[in-house]
Design goal:
This protein is α+β, with helices and mostly antiparallel strands. It contains ten helices and eight strands. Helix 9 runs antiparallel to helix 10. The protein is flat.
């Protein structure tokens, strides 16, 4: 029996041959030609409208399954972050108040608990340096706990304080696949995030949004991506400052978002590269690099070929074809030498 794929391929080949026959020519030799009877037979073998509807219905069902799978994957990521069993919380609760306990055994037990929490909240490119948990309220069906985590990514510190409400899932309640078989579901109800003072100004807006929506996972994922781009931008700016010392300025320092350059004799035009590194509530970082030109009235007047006005657009083309470093090097070299 022919598969759906082979049948579809055969139908496509047949369509092409029929089309050519109707136009009065067929590729290849005469043996491949189709008579009118052959064409009628081929048309009879084509899928009926009902079959086509069924085919596309199956395609839509497959797409729906893929969407559901992606939704479950997102939910899985959220639950991994909050996957702190009630038994662990209970053990922490019983250990933390024992401030007089200084024995090696107690200390090792606490360290083991903290390591478990660190493993459960490990994200790529993030190093956690401290994790603490405090049970605030506990009942038969609900546990409310206060969490503090801190760490760094590419040398940029961060911390987050948040509350987790862990509720018992009622028997028989429909839950996402990721929660199937589990007795509780955890939800972040409060969040306060802090970032390294070097990047507070640049990330202020997104941090406020993250705190409003209690989006801890996007914060950690986005911050890790941001930190990597931040170091890349910093190293790039330092490189060009050393390479073209007399032409390049860093108005906000090497950790800022601006690189300024002009001809050493300052011919009336200043070029400013703005390299922002925003990330959104999905945790995705999308760097944006733009060129701005500030020119004197005299320079604009003599720029009859509109080179200054077209420079930003041309720079974007260079970024696409050459990459960041080569595009910057090319335009700085053209202006400064």
């Amino acid at each position: 029996m022919a598969t759906a794929a082979s049948r579809e391929s055969s139908e496509i080949d047949g369509y092409v041959t029929v089309q050519n026959a109707l136009k009065g020519y067929v590729e290849g030799n005469d043996e491949t030609s189709m008579s009118s009877d052959d064409i009628d037979k081929f048309i009879d073998t084509l899928a009926s409208p009902k079959e086509m509807v069924q085919y596309y219905k199956k395609e839509m069902e497959q797409l729906q399954k893929e969407i559901e799978s992606l939704e479950e994957s997102v939910e899985a990521d959220k639950q991994k972050l909050l996957e702190i069993p009630a038994s662990v919380l209970e053990e922490i609760k019983s250990q933390i108040p024992s401030s007089n306990a200084t024995g090696v055994e107690d200390d090792e037990k606490l360290q083991a608990i903290f390591k478990q929490l660190q493993v459960q909240t490990t994200f790529s490119k993030i190093a956690f340096t401290d994790t603490t948990v405090k049970v605030m309220k506990q009942s038969q069906n609900k546990t409310i706990s206060s969490h503090h985590i801190q760490g760094n990514s590419f040398g940029l510190d961060f911390s987050a304080d948040f509350e987790v409400t862990e509720t018992k899932i009622p028997e028989g309640e429909a839950v996402p696949q990721i929660l199937a078989g589990q007795e509780t579901k955890a939800t972040i109800t409060k969040l306060k995030a802090s970032v390294d003072e070097q990047v507070q100004m640049e990330l202020n807006d997104i941090i406020q949004e993250i705190q409003k929506t209690c989006a801890l996972e996007p914060f950690l994922n986005g911050y890790a991506q941001y930190a990597e781009w931040f170091r890349h931008r910093e190293n790039t700016f330092i490189h060009f400052k050393k390479e073209y010392e007399s032409a390049v300025m860093l108005p906000q320092g090497s950790t800022g978002a601006l690189l300024q350059f002009s001809h050493p004799d300052n011919n009336g035009a200043v070029y400013i590269v703005s390299w922002s590194i925003p990330f959104n509530l999905t945790g995705r970082t999308e760097p944006s690099i733009d060129l701005h030109v500030k020119a004197s009235a005299h320079m604009n007047q003599i720029d009859q070929r509109n080179i200054l006005k077209s420079a930003p657009e041309e720079f974007q083309k260079m970024l696409t074809s050459l990459g960041v470093e080569k595009a910057l090097d090319s335009i700085i070299q053209a202006v400064a030498t």
